[in-house]
Write a structure and sequence with these properties.
The chain is an alpha/beta fold. It contains 15 helices and 19 strands. The strands form 5 sheets. It has a 7-stranded mixed beta sheet with strand order 7-6-15-16-17-14-18. A 5-stranded parallel beta sheet has the order 9-2-1-13-19, with helices on one face. It has a 3-stranded antiparallel beta sheet with strand order 10-11-12, with no helix packed on it. Strand 1, helix 1 and strand 2 form a beta-alpha-beta unit. It is globular and about 60 Å long.
């Protein structure tokens, strides 16, 4: 039995650990927080549970890529999900002209719903959706297809900027902004984000989206159960404080509790720049460290977690996006912009969800530079001025939300807010980045960090290596495990089990 130690028990660490455990490895996951899961974690406030991330997920429809990975792991029948409304998977409100757009499910639903507002663009919308789906066909891993191409060839459109790709098919400037509304989900920036990332995220949501019922931590628990059922362990409140490397080989890792762990393989599921602080400086070539430290990170977010008064506000079975101006849609990651440019609003579902919502969430993209003056502070010790600043930002978001739902503030019972500093300290990500390293079409090699390293038994995993989010991280976990087990090994296993 081979052994593996995984540094970090977030989504990437748990998926990688679950796959290796299923394939016969004895896995030990070391997580610094009190619970495993990363973006799947929850926290308790006001007597209720709030998700910290992973609020809306794709790829979980029958036959979808994440559905099939979960089926391979043997947990698909235990995942508790609620599908969003078919006739309105997402709604978009633009404050500029007080217009709301409801996005229908599927290719035809998407085209029909937007053609109601832009009838002259129907043919262009068809061509755009076809082009989006065609780009995903160039990514074999996205479709869980084995491939022998080490250096796959791609179309010219694959490496376009996402905003240029959209403009190639859509004529109306407002509609261009509407179809780009999901860019905060992957840290999208104008004239930077690659078209293929936009296409992959968009195609996932075209196929239908889901929410975790009763909290996303239940999914983290399922991944932990796979690891434990195969003889592995997930140790929480035991982060790694040192990785001993000699002659480009990891000898052991030492945890914050003073325990040493040895294994055949070590997998880092934390931000690479965080890993650099735990490992000898000479473990990696200087050029490697410099390159990774120079990659810009995606932007962070400011979140407001709301406990609602009983029977005061209806449960809404889709996400709502508030946008200020159409021409600001690609500027979430740009400095010197008025905040907020927009935000996501949703009411998470509970078990046996009824007519009314118990809680609500507002998440607005924010740059780390907005909290830079408090970067050297710690949780609970940031000072009165920080708390005052948070209150001001929270009230600003609530004022905007009143445009969407007049009288919402009167439905609020209690509020808790979190800034990019909270995300940085809670997840251990550089600058509180929500989507890891920023991806730039002008330098794709810089945007994709290989999972293998110059340290022969140290491998990387997580959204910093490739695609972000609930879909991208499991796919990267396949790359990570195949770096150990052999190219296409896991993909063949998944296809053997799930092709029915």
């Amino acid at each position: 039995m081979k052994t593996a130690v995984i540094i970090g028990g977030g989504l990437g660490g748990l998926f990688t650990g679950a796959i290796l455990s299923k394939e016969g490895f004895k896995v030990t996951v070391l997580e610094k927080n009190m619970t495993a899961g990363g973006g799947l974690q929850n926290f308790n406030r006001f007597g209720m549970k709030f998700d910290t991330g992973m609020h809306v997920i794709g790829g979980m429809h029958r036959g979808g890529n994440i559905y099939r990975i979960c089926k391979y792991l043997g947990i698909i029948d235990k995942v508790s999900l609620k599908e969003v409304d078919n006739n309105c998977t997402d709604s978009l409100y633009f404050s500029e002209d007080k217009t709301t757009y409801c996005i229908g499910k599927g290719k035809e639903g998407f085209i029909d719903s937007l053609s109601e507002h832009f009838p002259e663009e129907r043919d262009n919308l068809k061509k755009y959706v076809d082009a989006v789906l065609a780009l995903t066909e160039e990514v074999n891993l996205f479709h869980l297809r084995p491939s022998s191409d080490i250096f796959p060839s791609h179309s010219t459109e694959f490496f376009l900027a996402a905003d240029a790709f959209i403009a190639k098919y859509i004529t109306n400037p407002k509609l261009r902004s509407v179809v780009a509304y999901m860019n905060p989900l992957y840290g999208g920036r104008g004239d930077e984000s690659p078209a293929y990332i936009h296409a992959i995220i968009s195609s996932l949501y075209l196929q239908g989206t889901y929410r975790f019922v009763g909290g996303s931590d239940s999914f983290a628990d399922l991944l932990v159960s796979v690891i434990e059922a195969n003889g592995g362990t997930v140790n929480v409140n035991e982060g790694v404080e040192w990785v001993e490397v000699n002659n480009r080989h990891v000898d052991y890792v030492r945890s914050c509790k003073g325990n040493s762990y040895q294994a055949d393989y070590y997998i880092s599921a934390i931000h690479p720049c965080t890993l650099f602080t735990l490992i000898p400086e000479n473990a990696f070539p200087k050029a490697y460290r410099t390159r990774l430290n120079s990659i810009p990170n995606s932007y962070s977010a400011f979140s407001v977690y709301i406990k609602l008064k009983p029977n005061a506000f209806p449960y809404i079975n889709h996400s709502e996006y508030y946008m200020t101006k159409y021409d600001e849609i690609w500027n979430f990651g740009k400095p010197n912009k008025a905040w907020p440019l927009g935000f996501l609003f949703m009411t998470p579902p509970e078990i046996n969800q009824g007519k009314y919502a118990d809680k609500a969430l507002i998440t607005s993209p924010m740059l780390f530079e907005d909290v830079i003056k408090w970067e050297d502070t710690t949780v609970g010790k940031r000072g009165v001025d920080y708390e005052t600043w948070k209150d001001e930002k929270t009230q600003h978001l609530l004022n905007c939300l009143e445009e969407l739902h007049h009288g919402f503030t009167a439905c609020v019972d209690k509020i808790n807010a979190a800034s990019p500093l909270t995300i940085r300290d809670y997840y251990g990500t550089k600058e509180g980045s929500m989507c890891g390293f920023s991806k730039d079409y002008k330098n794709i090699p810089l945007s994709q960090v290989p999972v293998v390293t110059k340290v022969d038994n140290l491998i990387l995993t997580g959204q910093n290596n490739s695609l972000p989010g609930f879909c991208g991280v499991p796919l990267t976990a396949i790359n990570t495990t195949e770096a150990i087990l052999g190219r296409n090994y896991i993909l063949h296993r998944i296809n053997e089990i799930t092709n029915d």
